């Protein structure tokens, strides 16, 4: 890939966390990107991004608390993933606090709580303990996710993502029933457009058994879209594209999660290998090239695109965003 565009770190700012000073070249790259393309990372609390995003090393706690305004000054970052609510639902006030820290043109990609999207209630080690009575529950989805996110984020809401965790083996034999339950949940969600004109609802899955014509019909019936999940548990982009084509025309929501070299259960291996996430270690050129084509086709047709990248994709999310932006802008 090309050398990083990030250089001079001497930047004065009144924020508790200060960004680096971005050179003209990175501003120029941001200006080349279509306005309807929103690139960003999965979160913003990584001390290892010092010199890439932050002017110096800050603690993870300080970045979680104070880093969002500095993050939003990055010329390529026009969205960010909020995954924190997966573990415990966030309140309207918590969402509103996020919205108050970013420019009016910034958008959030928000992940639904496991309370709604995991078939099992899990212990501290991730082992399923019992069946989750709130799995794909319409009332819980509105009360504990969609309503507070919409009210708190307002027009900074970009995408509500229901990332459905891997299903127990026996459940994968009952996909028609689960798809019906998913449809009922999606139908119950409030209309987003009045308060958040750019907002979309997207469903991401971790089992390829979901990818059926019936699943597509459920998404169409509820005006939802498919979240392109780039994760080793799922097929590569080329094998997920038929779902997007069946939903066309429509927006793109993509979350580039984990490099496939680590395998379906390699999240922890990727986390441990890539920390502190300060450099690219395993560039996935094939995925980047394929994703570039999807992005260019989407925004070229005038459709919104939300794409967030994880540190576990190539080793350093800011540099992955930069590399993807360079290929999209070519």
Explain what this protein looks like in three dimensions.
- By secondary structure, this protein is α/β, with parallel strands linked by helices.
- The protein folds into two domains: about 1-50 and about 225-330, no CATH class; about 80-225, no CATH class.
- About 35% of the residues lie in helices and about 15% in strands.
- The chain has 13 helices and ten strands.
- Strands 1-2-3-6-7-8-9-10 form an eight-stranded parallel β-barrel, surrounded by five helices.
- Strand 8 (about 225-230), helix 9 and strand 9 (about 250-255) form a beta-alpha-beta unit.
- Helix 4 (about 90-100) runs parallel beside helix 6, helix 6 crosses helix 7 and helix 11 (about 285-300) packs across helix 13.
- The protein starts with about 25 loop residues before the first helix and ends with a helix.
What percent strand? 15-25%
Report how far apart the termini are.
13 Å
Strand runs, count = 10
Total domain units: 2
**Any low-confidence stretches, pLDDT <50, length ≥5?**
6-14
Radius of gyration: 19 Å
Helical stretch count?
13
| Average pLDDT taken over every residue | 94
Order of strands in the sheet with the most strands?
1-2-3-6-7-8-9-10
Helix content: 25-40%
SS content category: alpha/beta
H/E series: HEHHEHEHEEHEHEHEHEHHEHH
């Amino acid at each position: 890939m090309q050398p990083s565009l990030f250089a001079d770190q001497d930047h004065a700012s009144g924020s508790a966390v200060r960004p680096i000073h971005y050179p003209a070249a990175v501003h120029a790259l941001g200006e080349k990107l279509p306005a309807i393309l929103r690139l960003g990372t999965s979160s913003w609390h990584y001390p290892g991004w010092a010199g890439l995003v932050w002017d110096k090393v800050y603690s993870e706690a300080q970045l979680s608390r104070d880093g969002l305004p500095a993050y939003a000054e990055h010329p390529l970052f026009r969205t960010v993933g909020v995954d924190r609510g997966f573990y415990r639902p966030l309140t309207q006030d918590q969402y509103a606090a996020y919205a108050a820290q970013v420019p009016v043109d910034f958008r959030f990609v928000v992940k639904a709580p496991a309370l709604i999207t995991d078939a099992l209630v899990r212990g501290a080690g991730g082992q399923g303990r019992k069946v989750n009575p709130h799995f794909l529950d319409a009332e819980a989805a509105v009360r504990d996710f969609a309503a507070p996110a919409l009210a708190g984020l307002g027009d900074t809401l970009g995408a509500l993502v229901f990332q459905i965790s891997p299903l127990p083996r026996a459940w994968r034999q009952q996909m028609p029933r689960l798809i019906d339950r998913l449809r009922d949940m999606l139908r119950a969600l409030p209309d987003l457009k009045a308060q958040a004109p750019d907002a979309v609802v997207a469903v991401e899955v971790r089992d390829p058994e979901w990818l059926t014509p019936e699943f597509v019909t459920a998404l169409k019936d509820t005006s939802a879209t498919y979240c392109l999940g780039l994760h080793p548990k799922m097929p590569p982009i080329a094998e997920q594209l038929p779902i997007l084509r069946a939903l066309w025309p429509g927006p793109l929501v993509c979350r580039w999660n984990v490099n496939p070299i680590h395998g379906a259960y390699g999240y922890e291996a990727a986390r441990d290998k890539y920390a502190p996430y300060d450099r690219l270690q395993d560039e996935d050129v094939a995925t980047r090239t394929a994703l570039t084509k999807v992005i260019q086709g989407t925004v070229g047709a005038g459709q919104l695109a939300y794409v967030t990248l994880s540190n576990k994709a190539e080793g350093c999310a800011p540099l992955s965003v930069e590399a993807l932006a360079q290929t999209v802008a070519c």
